[in-house]
């Protein structure tokens, strides 16, 4: 099984950015743990702060991967383009958020990705990625 995690803006700062919301673990450290736990999966990840690069990656992998775990971060709430990219591909997408976006500012309650996703995992910290991965494995 071939799964990619695609992370959007500012997620490269995990471990230092607002640790009270996002925790103190870097994504690279967490990703290594996830790879070790799920050795049966060809698991990769991509991160960009640039909207167009995220769209390009979604289109690149969206026809031959078994699944995409997408945390579009702030672009979730603003990017029609990312939502359209998810809608245009064949690979199923699970939208993920580390924090509970519904307990935060009102603008974070809207998602342009959710209507085109297989499902959503929100608010379980970095464990949200593992929950999404388990959904693909079942």
UniProtKB/TrEMBL annotation:
<feature type="binding site">
    <location>
        <position position="77"/>
    </location>
    <ligand>
        <name>substrate</name>
    </ligand>
</feature>
<comment type="subunit">
    <text>Homododecamer.</text>
</comment>
<feature type="binding site">
    <location>
        <begin position="98"/>
        <end position="99"/>
    </location>
    <ligand>
        <name>substrate</name>
    </ligand>
</feature>
<keyword id="KW-0057">Aromatic amino acid biosynthesis</keyword>
<comment type="pathway">
    <text>Metabolic intermediate biosynthesis; chorismate biosynthesis; chorismate from D-erythrose 4-phosphate and phosphoenolpyruvate: step 3/7.</text>
</comment>
<dbReference type="InterPro" id="IPR001874">
    <property type="entry name" value="DHquinase_II"/>
</dbReference>
<feature type="binding site">
    <location>
        <position position="84"/>
    </location>
    <ligand>
        <name>substrate</name>
    </ligand>
</feature>
<dbReference type="InterPro" id="IPR036441">
    <property type="entry name" value="DHquinase_II_sf"/>
</dbReference>
<comment type="function">
    <text>Catalyzes a trans-dehydration via an enolate intermediate.</text>
</comment>
<feature type="active site" description="Proton donor">
    <location>
        <position position="97"/>
    </location>
</feature>
<comment type="similarity">
    <text>Belongs to the type-II 3-dehydroquinase family.</text>
</comment>
<dbReference type="GO" id="GO:0003855">
    <property type="term" value="F:3-dehydroquinate dehydratase activity"/>
</dbReference>
<dbReference type="Pfam" id="PF01220">
    <property type="entry name" value="DHquinase_II"/>
</dbReference>
<keyword id="KW-0028">Amino-acid biosynthesis</keyword>
<dbReference type="InterPro" id="IPR018509">
    <property type="entry name" value="DHquinase_II_CS"/>
</dbReference>
<protein>
    <recommendedName>
        <fullName>3-dehydroquinate dehydratase</fullName>
        <ecNumber>4.2.1.10</ecNumber>
    </recommendedName>
</protein>
<keyword id="KW-0456">Lyase</keyword>
<feature type="binding site">
    <location>
        <position position="71"/>
    </location>
    <ligand>
        <name>substrate</name>
    </ligand>
</feature>
<feature type="binding site">
    <location>
        <position position="108"/>
    </location>
    <ligand>
        <name>substrate</name>
    </ligand>
</feature>
<feature type="active site" description="Proton acceptor">
    <location>
        <position position="22"/>
    </location>
</feature>
<feature type="site" description="Transition state stabilizer">
    <location>
        <position position="17"/>
    </location>
</feature>
């Amino acid at each position: 099984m071939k799964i990619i995690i695609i992370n959007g803006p500012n997620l490269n700062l995990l471990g230092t950015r607002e640790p009270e919301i996002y925790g103190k673990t870097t994504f690279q450290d967490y990703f290594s743990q996830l790879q070790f736990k799920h050795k049966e999966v060809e698991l990769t990840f991509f991160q960009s702060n640039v909207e167009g690069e995220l769209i390009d990656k979604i289109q690149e992998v969206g026809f031959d991967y078994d699944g995409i775990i997408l945390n579009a971060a702030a672009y979730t709430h603003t990017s029609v383009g990312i939502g359209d990219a998810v809608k245009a591909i064949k690979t199923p997408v699970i939208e993920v958020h580390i924090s509970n976006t519904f307990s935060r500012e009102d603008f974070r309650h809207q998602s342009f990705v959710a209507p085109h996703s297989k499902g959503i995992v929100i608010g379980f910290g970095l464990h949200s990625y593992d929950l999404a991965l388990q959904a693909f494995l079942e």
